[in-house]
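Revision sheet: structure tokens.
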Amino acid sequence: MIYDFVIVGGGIVGLSTAMALGARDRNAKILVIEKESNFAQHQTGRNSGVIHSGIYYTPGSMKARFARSGARSMVEFCENHHIEHDICGKVIVATEQSQLPLLEKLYARGLENGLAIQKISGEQVNEIEPHVRCLAGIRVPATGIVSYRKVCAKYIELINAQGGEIKFGTRLSTIQDRGDHQVLETTEGDFKARYLINCAGLHSDRVARLAGVEPGARIVPFRGEYFELVPAKRHLVKTLIYPVPNPDFPFLGVHFTRMIDGTIHAGPNAVLAMKREGYHKTDFSLRDLSETLRYPGFWKLAAKHANEGAREFYRSLSKAAFVRSLQALIPEVEAQDLLPTHAGVRAQALLANGKLVDDFLIVNGRNSMHVCNAPSPGATASLEIGKAIIERIPQLKHEQGHRQTSNAAIN
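Predicted:
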């Protein structure tokens, strides 16, 4: 059998794409293959569960557009399918005088992105978060929290209802182009696809190259390490608390996130992972690390952010340093209040010139499409990304154009 579409990757973007395809055409033969034994095992299942507002993103970028529309559609999806979520809001706070101009710029960006946000004083921040020490802040009411594992479980339920197939424990090894279709060789046999969609996350650049497509960037893995507040100290955080981000550094800094299960996560620091799926400090892959260290873009990035990178690495090694970063936001937090919890790995696409790909990177091949950078707000915007992907498939664009022409002729 030849599938109309085979999607590589059982994370939230791959599943949302399969669901969007199935909703568009119930007769299409759709297959999702995932190398793990279950869904959402990597970035999707290890993120902070935030429904992002889009305040940080460059106005007009795909990230900004997808975050705004994605937050609305994600909340609507959760409401329609009775998935627990909470639009609890968040505060972004300036703790030093030097951060106040950055807070003003961020506020202006949020307004430019069309968000209903408020600039508030330190006293007003304390009405929301009594334990925070700050000079001023921004209140972002539209931010929420959800379990993206539960969202994915519902996506799978809907895919199955549409007649789509999902095969777990199916690791891709090679891709052969046979002209009118491609043959995907896997550990569970060969699968034929008229069109391939690559949503492989941490391995998306490798899958693209297997398909003969050069994505123009390489995935470099950064591990985000978190602590969790002990139950007795969860009262210190009511919503989500973020610092003003350093505009010269590509990460947001350590922050406090209330999870949908009531736990409070603190972090992350961001350090280079020695393995693409390196969730522990000791995880190591010679292939993964050597690819990173041989890549010129990595050394250019490291040189540019040497000081910040050193601080992140030190904070990874020293719990005391990590605690001091958190105390800048909530002085009452002590080392004994924090327990290590699971880490995540961010699949960051990096250009050879040392610049991080700051937006979604979607690369077309012949009869294939490759999502090679789907950073935050990828989970928030998964429904919108899935729709956007299928709108870019040439065959479907042609069919859509044909229908529009036919309808115009009828009318």
